Amino acid sequence: MRTARQLSIFLLAISGISALYSGYQMISDPTGNSLGLPFYLLNGSAFSDYSLPGWVILGTVGVFSFVIILSIIKKIKTYSFLIILQGVIICILIILQMILLSETFVIQYVSLILGGALIGLGALQYQRRIAVEAEHKANPHVAPKSHHHKHRKQK
């Protein structure tokens, strides 16, 4: 399960860093020029510039990704749910973006794959936690097995 946690942290860091950067750029330059976003993409949308979408991306993906990374590192009980939630948030934001823009770009498909991967990794870790808790409830007096016992040298 350690590998799933590490992969989750890696994907969350990538999404968080890219969201912090792009969100900041959209806020500091609402025209979208700094990111190469054409202003015509906003035509017919509810947005007059890129600042509000920048704040949404900065908060929901950028900051929240790093909150989740901290919860994974501290092994807070709900971290697997938070990973799933972040994957769902990313997918919803990208699907809304595709609908609002009426155009699609490669980065949107990459982001959907990333969101789907987070959902899968979170579900895998959640399922594992449920299994461990069920085993512990069934055998409360049995000490948890150590992974490292297999690798010790026999004397």
Can you offer a commentary on this structure?
This protein has 155 residues and is mainly α. It has one domain (2-143). Helix content is 68%, strand content 0%. It has 4 helices and no strands. It has helices at 2-28, 51-73, 79-101, 106-138. It starts with a helix and ends in a 17-residue tail after the last helix. The relative contact order is 0.13.
Task: For the structure shown, list the relevant keywords.
155 residues; mainly alpha
Describe the structure concisely.
The chain has helices at 2-28, 51-73, 79-101, 106-138. With 155 residues, the chain is mostly helical.
Q: What portion of residues belong to β-strands?
A: under 5%
Regarding quaternary structure, what we see is single chain
Q: H/E element string?
A: HHHH
CA-based shape:
elongated
Number of helices: 4
Radius of gyration: 20 Å
Q: Gap between N and C termini, in Å?
A: 30 Å
Unreliable stretches (pLDDT < 50, length at least 5) are none
Q: Helix proportion of residues, in percent?
A: 55-70%
Mean pLDDT: 89
Secondary-structure content class: mainly alpha
